[in-house]
Automatic annotation (TrEMBL):
Protein name per UniProt: GFA family protein
Annotated source species: Rhodanobacter humi
The keyword Zinc appears for this protein: yes
Coiled coil: none
Family: Belongs to the Gfa family.
Keywords per UniProt: Lyase, Metal-binding, Zinc
């Protein structure tokens, strides 16, 4: 089975995931823009099991639809590495950049297009949603 390791900038916090991604996407919501310091977040979902190494600081945020998301980041360098949705223990969302793999597959969907910066260009054929398609 294929495994991938995503890590923070200093290497103190990492997560190892197994198997193929459940899907990858980008989110343009204002919370993700603020959280990443970029104009969108790039995320890839993986099914359990996964293994976390190191210590994470957590920040819980409630999304527009009422779900709570637990963001895990390194207390040393501040890099966000992954997050989970409370009540959904079978899936983890990993920050694509934390894999440090320029060959990582492109996203399949884009959410919160209503907040996308006009100059951001995405791959052809990507599914686009004005808000979260929950």
């Amino acid at each position: 089975m294929t495994s991938r390791i995503a890590a923070c900038c200093c290497g103190q916090l990492s997560i190892e995931v197994q198997g193929e991604t459940l899907g990858a996407g980008v989110c343009h919501c204002l919370a993700c823009q603020r959280r990443t310091g970029s104009v969108f977040a790039a995320l890839a979902g993986y099914a359990a099991p996964w293994k976390v190494n190191g210590t994470a600081t957590e920040y819980v945020r409630t999304g527009d639809a009422g779900a709570s998301f637990r963001f895990c980041f390194c207390p040393v360098c501040g890099s966000t590495v992954f997050h989970t949705e409370e009540g959904n223990d079978g899936c983890v969302m990993v920050a694509v950049g934390a894999f440090a793999d320029p060959a990582f597959p492109p996203p399949q969907d884009s959410v919160y297009e209503c907040r996308r910066h006009a100059w951001v260009q995405l791959p052809e054929g990507i599914a686009r949603y004005e808000r979260d398609p929950d």
